[in-house]
Amino acid sequence: MSSSLQGKHIVLGITGSIAAYKAAVLARLLIKCGAEVQIVITPAGKEFITPITLSAITSKPVISEFFSNRDGTWNSHVDLGLWADAMLVAPATAATIGKMAHGIADNMLVTTYLSARAQVFVAPAMDLDMFAHPSTTDNLEILRKRGNLIIEPASGELASHLVGKGRMEEPEKIVAVLEAFFNKKQILSGKRILITAGPTYEKIDPVRFIGNYSTGKMGVAIANELYRRGAQVDLVLGPSVEIPEEGINTVRVESAEEMLAACRKVVSWCHAAVFTAAVADYRPAERSDSKIKREQKGDMELLLKRNPDIAATLGQEKHEGQFFMGFSLETDRGLTEAKRKLEVKNFDAIVLNTLQDAGAGFGGNTNKVTLIDRSGLEDSFPLKSKTEVAADLADYLVRKLQ
Ligand code: C5P
C-alpha cells in the first residue's frame, strides 16, 4: 500500500542536538515513503551532522543561510513555507523551541517556521533538566496552543527510566505520526459540507444594525478542520474578521435572509451541514435608505419582523442520508433546550455550549461543549481551545459520514 506521504513536501528542520544524527535516518525514511524533503539546518545543527551527508540523502542542497553559499542567491523562506505540506523540526532543542514560541527569527529555520502555512510537528530533544524547566514547558505549551503537534515518546515507555524524558522520539515513530496526519487529512475527500458561521447584521439604516457578539471563530475553526481533512467546504459567513483557509468556498453575507439564500444554493448537494451561525431572530420591519434622524424629544419605536430560522427551514427539507448538526447556546436549562432543538429543527446532532461555563460561548478562543445526538449520545468535553473542539467535532462527523 502506498504511504500517505507519497508526493508530500516536507520541510525538515534540524537543530543542534546530539540527536541530529537521527535526522539522517528520518530523512531517509520520509523519502522511502515517497515524500520530497527539503532540509533546513541551524548553524549549531551543522556542528552535529554535515550538510553533505544530508544532501546526499535528500538529493537537494541543504539550506542553512539566508543566502546560498554557492551563488549568493537569496533562499526564500516564504516560498519554502508555502511549498511545505508539513514542517517537521526534529530534533528540536530548547533554544529553537523558545525561538519558535517567541518569533525570534534569527536563522533560516525559525524564519521558515514563521512563513509556514502547513501543519508543524516538533520532536523535542534535550536532557531531562532542560526539558523539565518551566521555560521549556511554557514554550511547548505556546506551540501546542498554536496547533503545532509535539511528538514525544509515550510516557509509558519511559516509566522505568525517567532519565529518558526529553529524548527524541524514534524516527520510525515520527514518520508514523506524519503518515497518520496525512491519512486523516484526506478522510473526508468527496464529501461536501455546508457551514454557517458568524453573526448576522440586520440593517436599520445605512449606519445602524441589530447584531450580536458572535465572532465566527468556532464556525471558521470547524470549516478549516473539515477542509484540512479533505472535505469540499461551503462556508456561509456573516460579518466576521476571521480568515478561513484559502481553499474553502466562502460566501460572505450580512443578513439572515442573505444567509438563507446563500445556503439554499448549495445545501441540496451537501452530505452534511453544520449550523454554527448566531442568526438574529428579528430584523427591522422597514429599512431606511437614509440615516434616521434623532427626534428632538421622546422615544423611538422600532417594529421587528421575525427572521427565517435557517437551520429549521433547511432541516425540514433535508434529504435522506444528509447529516445536519446544530449548535445551541444556552444560559440555563441547557440539556433540555438542546434536546428540544434537536427535535424541532430536525438536526441529527446538536452541540450545546452553556454561557454559565467559564470560557465557553462567544468571543474567546476556548469552548466547552456537550455533543448530543439521536442515538442517545451525550458526550461532555472538557474546556478546550476552539481548534481542539473543532477537531473533536470533525472526528465525530468523520464517523457519521462513513
Ligand atoms: O433557536 P436557536 O437560535 O437557539 O438555535 C440555534 C441553532 O439554530 C444554531 O445551530 C443556529 O445556527 C440555528 N439557527 C438558524 N437560524 C436562525 C436561528 C438559529 O440557522 N434564525
TrEMBL record:
Q: Where is this region: Phosphopantothenoylcysteine decarboxylase?
A: 1-192
Mind telling me which PANTHER family this protein's record contains? Answer: HOMO-OLIGOMERIC FLAVIN CONTAINING CYS DECARBOXYLASE FAMILY (PTHR14359), PHOSPHOPANTOTHENOYLCYSTEINE DECARBOXYLASE (PTHR14359:SF6)
Give every Flavoprotein domain span.
8-177
Spell out the InterPro entries in the cross-references. Answer: CoaB-like_sf (IPR035929), CoaBC (IPR005252), DNA/pantothenate-metab_flavo_C (IPR007085), Flavin_trans-like (IPR036551), Flavoprotein (IPR003382)
- Which residue ranges are recorded for the region named Phosphopantothenate--cysteine ligase? 193-402
Pathway(s) of this molecule: Cofactor biosynthesis; coenzyme A biosynthesis; CoA from (R)-pantothenate: step 3/5; Cofactor biosynthesis; coenzyme A biosynthesis; CoA from (R)-pantothenate: step 2/5
Question: What is one Pfam family matched by this protein?
Answer: Flavoprotein
* Keyword Lyase among record annotations: yes
The record's comment on cofactor binding reads:
Binds 1 FMN per subunit.
E.C. code: 4.1.1.36, 6.3.2.5
**DNA/pantothenate metabolism flavoprotein C-terminal domain mapped to chain residues:** 188-398
Biological processes annotated in GO: coenzyme A biosynthetic process; pantothenate catabolic process
Q: Which family does it belong to?
A: In the C-terminal section; belongs to the PPC synthetase family. In the N-terminal section; belongs to the HFCD (homo-oligomeric flavin containing Cys decarboxylase) superfamily.
Q: Which reaction does it catalyse?
A: N-[(R)-4-phosphopantothenoyl]-L-cysteine + H(+) = (R)-4'-phosphopantetheine + CO2; (R)-4'-phosphopantothenate + L-cysteine + CTP = N-[(R)-4-phosphopantothenoyl]-L-cysteine + CMP + diphosphate + H(+)
Quote the protein name from its UniProt record: Coenzyme A biosynthesis bifunctional protein CoaBC
Q: Which UniProt keywords apply?
A: Decarboxylase, Flavoprotein, FMN, Ligase, Lyase, Magnesium, Metal-binding, Multifunctional enzyme
Task: Give the GO cellular component terms, alphabetically.
Answer: phosphopantothenoylcysteine decarboxylase complex
Chain positions recorded as CTP binding sites:
281, 291, 327, 341, 345
Record-level Gene Ontology MF annotations: FMN binding; metal ion binding; phosphopantothenate--cysteine ligase activity; phosphopantothenoylcysteine decarboxylase activity
Q: Which cofactors is this protein said to need? A: Mg(2+); FMN
Record function comment? Catalyzes two steps in the biosynthesis of coenzyme A. In the first step cysteine is conjugated to 4'-phosphopantothenate to form 4-phosphopantothenoylcysteine, in the latter compound is decarboxylated to form 4'-phosphopantotheine. Catalyzes two sequential steps in the biosynthesis of coenzyme A. In the first step cysteine is conjugated to 4'-phosphopantothenate to form 4-phosphopantothenoylcysteine. In the second step the latter compound is decarboxylated to form 4'-phosphopantotheine.
